[in-house]
């Protein structure tokens, strides 16, 4: 991760004994993999001086893809919104540099571009927009095309791109997988500063969130079953399904051995009211009694 020092300069918070390169060097393509990509670009007639994609979808074709990929776009948008504003404080005292996201479908058609309002306005005046195709045939060697070719997370330095259009950008891209391991799209983070170590970790965090949240959109029952099996499902379900007062009772039940009478005294409720809340909690969380409730919670 990274932060700003007292002078406002952007610095890494990785230990000095563990340089950032340790966290991303394994994601760079080998020389042979890069050369193979360059050869494919030459065979496709891609000019090295290219400054914009050779293929861009018409609006109607893009809209059809957006409709097909609506869950992916919606989930991704909710997850990465906090990260694409200039100077955002991701964690207390920790800041991300300006980041530029491109979300693509499984065929590398850009579905959505995420950036700060300023950078998004600048991008709209250039070639960076939904509908561009990020394949080698269209854009030459780039992180998204390499991630698709090798089915893994890939990092690229500016000079490793085949075409001029990407030479100023360092990029990290990866397939976006669902919980069954199928590729549903690709996500790229580009930045103009050499902080790939931070960006690799950030992208991996996003990918994990997208995978799980996408399942909640497409198959909620299966998603809850996975959360329960992983040991955190009951707590998350409590946060989502219980009323504020029921969550208070739930917390006291879980974190203490208090009886209904003791809980009633603390919350200034009638004992019968607390018992009613307990029955509702059991019903909503799918457990039969207090012993089962605690057993579920202890698995988190």
UniProtKB/TrEMBL annotation:
<dbReference type="InterPro" id="IPR029016">
    <property type="entry name" value="GAF-like_dom_sf"/>
</dbReference>
<feature type="domain" description="HTH luxR-type">
    <location>
        <begin position="235"/>
        <end position="300"/>
    </location>
</feature>
<protein>
    <submittedName>
        <fullName>Helix-turn-helix transcriptional regulator</fullName>
    </submittedName>
</protein>
<keyword id="KW-0805">Transcription regulation</keyword>
<keyword id="KW-0804">Transcription</keyword>
<dbReference type="InterPro" id="IPR016032">
    <property type="entry name" value="Sig_transdc_resp-reg_C-effctor"/>
</dbReference>
<dbReference type="GO" id="GO:0006355">
    <property type="term" value="P:regulation of DNA-templated transcription"/>
</dbReference>
<dbReference type="InterPro" id="IPR036388">
    <property type="entry name" value="WH-like_DNA-bd_sf"/>
</dbReference>
<dbReference type="GO" id="GO:0003677">
    <property type="term" value="F:DNA binding"/>
</dbReference>
<dbReference type="InterPro" id="IPR000792">
    <property type="entry name" value="Tscrpt_reg_LuxR_C"/>
</dbReference>
<dbReference type="Pfam" id="PF00196">
    <property type="entry name" value="GerE"/>
</dbReference>
<keyword id="KW-0238">DNA-binding</keyword>
